[in-house]
Design a protein that fits this description.
Layout: H1 12-20, H2 28-34, E1 42-46, H3 54-61, E2 65-70, H4 73-86, E3 91-95, E4 108-114, H5 123-133, E5 134-145, E6 152-154, H6 169-184, H7 198-207, E7 210-222, H8 231-254, H9 262-281, E8 287-299
The chain binds S-adenosylmethionine.
């Protein structure tokens, strides 16, 4: 990894925004069950990012605790500051490596991860570490989004209207598809690309000696015009989506890895501005949906 400080490839804001709909308050009891968690347990979450799930689960297991661990120091600082600001006292965050967890054997009642294992080049070592720090009889759960990093998208009504609702609408969607295809086929150094089919999740836990494995799935959709989303939140989402898209395109312009020409990226940036103006003026929002899988089992007493 060299001496450079580790920085995760996705910005904190992107993770936070995309996880809001996945971790809705009404889903908490169901997800606690899927992850094998109950009040009073001390839980480790590996690859917690800027805190997209740790506090959410912690609120359901008090007086138990959640410790979030991540290799990205900025994520951990951000997560710590947010929890302090929100007054959540049974969650804490540490910088650490999934391959060498800084805890003694059998330290936790449960070790879990959400989209934190599938990104690793060596998931086996990480799950072995999770097993080591979990007490015998404790819960081991790994969860992954199964619909790809970007989920299922409905790219706004402008992508299906026959005629162009704003100049360049069709060109915008063609460009974005090309760019997405190029991103999907660009290898990212130091990041693995595990394919988390249900058999591979069962297989990994099963071969490492986890018993009573269960597999569950939950689906979610993030539509900012969902009536549960307040007007203020909607505007926040729209602004965040716009900033993120622009920033991602600008970053691609500076990236040596991309196979998209800078002319095409510049055109996409201009059309992004046009499109977001049109979306705002017409109160139109992009929708997104996805599914995640949770494989959960029990650490055997003999391990
Ligand atoms: C796809 S993000 C998921 C973050 C969070 N769980 C979520 O779903 O919002 C993957 C996370 O794994 C972390 N990560 C990558 N390699 C790691 C390692 N070796 N040890 C600990 N964390 C790692 C990254 O910093 C990033 O926060």
């Amino acid at each position: 990894m060299g001496t450079d400080r580790f920085r995760w490839i996705q910005p904190a804001e992107l993770l936070e925004q995309s996880r809001l709909m996945r971790f809705r308050p009404e889903m908490r009891p169901i997800l606690l069950n899927y992850f094998g968690l109950a009040p009073g347990m001390d839980v480790l979450e590996v690859g917690c990012g800027p805190d997209t799930m740790a506090s959410y689960l912690a609120e359901g297991i008090a007086p138990g605790t959640v410790t979030g661990l991540d290799l990205d120091e900025e994520f951990i600082h951000r997560a710590t500051a947010k929890a302090k600001q929100r007054g959540i006292s049974n969650v804490s965050f540490v910088v650490g490596n999934a391959y060498h967890l800084p805890f003694g054997d059998s330290h936790f009642d449960a070790a879990i991860s959400y989209t934190g294992i599938g990104v690793l080049t060596d998931p086996v070592v990480a799950v072995q570490e999770m097993l080591r720090v979990c007490r015998p009889g404790g819960a081991i759960s790994i969860a992954e989004a199964v619909t790809g990093p970007r989920g299922i998208h409905f790219f706004g009504i402008d992508s299906v209207l026959g005629e162009e609702p704003f100049p360049g609408a069709q060109r915008y969607h063609e460009l974005m598809q090309d760019i997405q295809a190029a991103i999907n086929t660009t290898p990212i150094s130091d990041v693995g690309s595990q394919r988390w089919s249900p058999p591979s999740m069962f297989g990994l836990l099963g071969t490492l000696g986890v018993t009573r494995i269960r597999l569950n799935a939950w689906g979610y959709a993030s539509a900012p015009d969902d009536e549960r989303v307040s007007t203020a939140e909607r505007e926040q989402w729209r602004k965040a989506a716009y900033r993120l898209q622009r920033r991602s395109l600008e970053e691609l312009q500076n990236s040596y890895q991309t196979r998209i020409s800078n002319e095409k990226l510049a055109e996409a940036i201009t059309l992004t501005d046009t499109r977001f103006r049109w979306l705002r003026n017409n109160a139109v929002y992009d929708w997104e949906a996805g599914v995640s899988l949770v494989a959960s089992g029990i650490k055997q007493w003999s391990l």
